[in-house]
Amino acid sequence: MSQINARMDLSDGHSIPTIGFGCYDGYGEEMVRAVRTAAETGYRYFDSAERYRNENEVGKGLAESGVRREDLYILSKIWPSSFGQTEEAFDQTRRDLGTDYLDAYLIHWPGQDTAARLKTYEKMMDLRSAGKIRSLGVSNFLPEQMEEIKDEFGEYPVIHEMECHPSYGQRELIFRCRARKMQPIAYSPINRSVDLDNETIRRLAEKYGRTPAQIVLRWHLEHSVIPIPKSVHENRIRENFDVYHFELDVPDIIAIDELEAGARSGKDPRTFPEI
């Protein structure tokens, strides 16, 4: 996987770029500028969410970039507190992002109400049938919650976004996703920069003449996991995208695999959010 703007096929017949731009934790003109810079750099997949409270800025940045809508991949997510107003939440997201449709719409967190979660997925299926959403997905789901969707609707979501980085590689969950033809997407792909100080990562960065972040992002790509790094700094935005002109040797991929520590840095979906 060395081609810039390469895409991965999804099991529903659509495809998704192999790296995305995470839109979490940026606001105002700073976020507009970051999104515009990312689009100008070459990012085409933008990963947003209702909960981020910045979709208007994301939409503005995309509009200012001049990139055609058909060349973009826009993904957003619904928060559990909106489960009872799925269509309204979707329409607000769509308006804020300045688009008639979403390439993918995900349930952000499973929450604690199974019936409400399944009803939301059913509404998302209706929006897909209406041509407003192309692909459906989930985020932070437990294996049994993936099976609930299959049992209820006869299909698995085609995307599963999860915390994933060298310290928390999610090998078992990714294996389950592969078996169910669900594409894994990694948020916090560099573990909030924690993994970048690891001795192994730094040694490999020196070996390949790359930054530690580029080594970790390339590691995700070697596993066919889509990373969505985030930054509002122009140099880092560009650096994070520059991962297509080298490949990691197999022993080096294994060395990073062995950094697995079961160290989740984000929330636990078994208890969060409490709704």
Automatic annotation (TrEMBL):
It comes from [Clostridium] aminophilum. This is 2,5-diketo-D-gluconate reductase A. The record marks K77 as: Lowers pKa of active site Tyr. Keywords: NADP, Oxidoreductase. It comes from the Bacteria. CDD domains: AKR_AKR1-5-like (cd19071). PROSITE patterns: ALDOKETO_REDUCTASE_2, ALDOKETO_REDUCTASE_3, PROKAR_LIPOPROTEIN. Belongs to the aldo/keto reductase family. Pfam families: Aldo_ket_red. Residues 29-260 form the NADP-dependent oxidoreductase domain. The active site is at Y52 (proton donor). InterPro entries: AKR, Aldo/ket_reductase_CS, NAD(P)_OxRdtase_dom_sf, NADP_OxRdtase_dom. GO terms for molecular function: oxidoreductase activity, acting on the CH-OH group of donors, NAD or NADP as acceptor. Substrate binds at H108.
